[in-house]
Amino acid sequence: MSSIIVDKKDDLIMRLVHYFITEKNYAPIVVNGVKDEIWLQNQDGPYKIIRINANYIHNKEQLAFDLLKIKNVMRQVKRKTVSFSMNALNILLDVNESLKTEKTKNIDSVIVKNIHDVKSNLKEIFPDLQNKLLLDENGLDLIVNVTNDINSKNAKDAALFEKTFKSKKLVVTYFLIAINIIIFLLTYALSGTNLNSLQLIRFGGVFDVLIKNGEFWRLLTGTFLHAGIIHLLVNMYSLYLIGTQVETYIGKWKFLSIYLISAISGSLMSCVFNLNTVSVGASGAIFGLLGSLIYFGYHYRLYLGSVLRNQIIPIIICNLLLGFMIPGVDNGAHIGGLIGGYLSTMAIGIEGKSKEQDRVNGIITTIIYIAFLCYIVFTK
After folding, report:
1. Which bin fits 349, alpha (ψ -120 to 50), beta or left (φ > 0)?
2. Which of 20, 187, 189, 193 has its CA 20 to 30 A from that of 65?
């Protein structure tokens, strides 16, 4: 039986790539125009980009050009993922012995030529590397084990991605739309089409004076009332567009929880900004769904970064600006719902993405946020 001898640099690359992908959740990224280089990214890792370079670096000029290339890729990834900061670990496998790496802003360069260098130079950044790095396998066994482990990790990630983004039977979004329409028709029928502020208060509109007197249910019922047919149609169309996306990505029960928490937090913020004023409408809850999309998109920003940058964030900004310019728009509810939706999604978590610590922080922050709004509303 013939044996397979793996090149020294290839051997080291396979061991490093195996560790970063299977143990540290890094994923390969495609960089055009490169050869003998591996680029990995993990937006939640100690380094958002890891680059492994097997090319020979023979002088200072080539090293400087190499750093420029890394900075260019970092800018592209930063723009694509809507990241505020970007750092990179540059692992060099073949450098002229007379050269020394220099500290560069947001780029740490490390020279590793063997397993001993890996352990000594990277142990502070990745403490578990010594125990998790493949050491025993060589030749064909190394190739097979690395391939199988990476394929298994990729299959797991692909299954999660498909489960998250595949089309699902939507229930809650259509149910909420139906409830809003039914309530609108009932209020019009009972009010004789004269749906003024007094009628809206009568049917359960958000009104700070009555809420302070113990009618807490208005914080929710007011979000299912609408002041007119245009108001209803605009909100229901928005709920259809945004709600179907959030329900697909998050799941129906999580979606319903986020919607209701956003509705209540929007109503509370409305009471903070609007004294002695009745407020109605689902827009606070809908802004909460936009906040949820921001949090979800952040965790999938490698895929949805352009959507966040070019669609979701501009929509939020434009609607908030219009709210400040157009009389009668309850921007307090919009802001309150937006924050509530983001925080409640953090508390509920994104399957396969959120860490337990993130969820705990989200729960605590959401409770503090709601409690703070209640304190302002009921004590001022």
Report:
1. left
2. 20
* Alpha-carbon gap, residue 295 to 341, rounded angstroms: 9
DSSP string spanning 71-89? HHHHHHHHHHTT-S---EE
What are the start-end ranges of the E strands in the chain? 27-28, 37-41, 49-53, 88-92, 107-111
* DSSP, residue by residue, 292-335: HHHHHHHHTHHHHHHHIIIIIHHHHHHHHHHHHHSTT--HHHHH
Residue in the structure block whose two tokens are 């709920």: 239
Query: How far is 121 from 52, CA to CA, in rounded Å?
Result: 14
Global pTM reads 0.82
CA angle 176, 284, 241 (to 5 degrees): 50
Residue 142 — pLDDT band, cuts 50, 70, 90? low
Residues with a catalytic annotation lie at 283, 334
Are the C-beta atoms of residues 207 and 218 closer than 8 Å to each other? yes
Helix axes 172-191, 229-250, angle to 10 degrees: 160
Element (H, E) at 176: helix 172-191
d(CA 287, CA 289): 5
Q: Both tokens of residue 54?
A: 């097997």
